[in-house]
Automatic annotation (TrEMBL):
Taxonomic source organism: Pandoraea iniqua
SUPFAM superfamilies the record matches: Aspartate/ornithine carbamoyltransferase (SSF53671)
Stretches assigned to the Aspartate/ornithine carbamoyltransferase Asp/Orn-binding domain: 189-340
Entry's EC annotation: 2.1.3.3
Single GO MF descriptor: ornithine carbamoyltransferase activity
InterPro entries associated with the record: Asp/Orn_carbamoyltranf_P-bd, Asp/Orn_carbamoylTrfase, Asp/Orn_carbamoylTrfase_sf, Asp_carbamoyltransf_Asp/Orn-bd
UniProt function note: Reversibly catalyzes the transfer of the carbamoyl group from carbamoyl phosphate (CP) to the N(epsilon) atom of ornithine (ORN) to produce L-citrulline.
Span of domain Aspartate/ornithine carbamoyltransferase carbamoyl-P binding: 12-163
Domain of life: Bacteria
Name under which the protein is recorded: Ornithine carbamoyltransferase
GO biological process entries: citrulline biosynthetic process; L-arginine biosynthetic process via ornithine
Pfam families: OTCace (PF00185), OTCace_N (PF02729)
Similarity remark: Belongs to the aspartate/ornithine carbamoyltransferase superfamily.
Gene: argF_1
Alphabetized UniProt keyword annotations: Transferase
Amino acid sequence: MTSGWLAPDLTMSATDYRALLDAALDLKRRYPLQTEFALRGRTIYFLFYNASLRTRSSFQTGLSRMGGHPVMLDPHNVIYTPALPEAEIPYSTERIADVARVLSAYGDAIAIRMYGEPAGWVYGGAHRHLEAFAQWASVPVINMECDRFHPCQALADVMTLREQLGGLTGRRLCISWAYSGSWHKPVAVPQSLLLAAVKSGMDVTLAHPPEFALDPEIMQAATQFASQTGAQVRVTHDFRDGVTDAHAVYAKSWCSLAHLPTRRGDAVDESAMLAAFEPHRDWCVDTQVLRHAAPGAGYLHCLPADRGQEVTDEVIDGPQSWVFQQAANRLHAQNAVMAHLLNPGCLA
């Protein structure tokens, strides 16, 4: 497996992660005039199995402004859909092993976004798809969000937290589930953020109804990283308890892993999923909820936000919202990831 940005959440040490965070903040300060040739002549192939505004726009803009060449490949229409052996369909799909080797011969990296329906909603299925690309590619593979991790979002998140709070050691972050009328959001964002935050030294309270627990492997890894950095991880099933005294509140919806299928071809237990959501409509960040947080606390969300369900307009558009700074940092975080993989010298 070649080096890449597949699951740095689990594989990158806290020390290395903090060094990359510092480099990303420095790269942002120098962008764009001092970075315009950082990736000159580099080509990255982008495969989006899912809709995207921020990820697609920020990657394409950042690579272009640094002198590189982004190539967007639609895995549903423009090319034969890359597939694992068990999901192949004659003259409709092409085995991932073949696609990865061909693209490696042409360019410098492959970036993939895949979760949910394209992987049949089997938890971990999309991540296995990315792992197959990494196994066969001879260039780095970048995870632009799968069903387990969203490392690019997490790096932008901790950049924003550093800019707003300064040093993160001992700062309190609440990562909370929030209600949505759709159950379709994966657990990738809270899982990557949890790991990034404890690597950065933050004390994290994870708040969610009992039905929305995260992957036990991720929770165990968070505890291990926290023991290395002196951070603390706490879980509560009380929304306001989670928010109380937090310096930052990151509240968004995610699905219940318990109601996803375990085999491709099986259906999501949608009635059970909806039944898990409905009793918790009050898990919405409004100005009253935010008053429980520490003075000056900020609200974060990866976007798109379900306004009036996850968060009210008054909060997301108000003075305590860090959401659009956070969205802007996607560009700079991903520039740092691409430079880290393809031209690390420019981060020195």
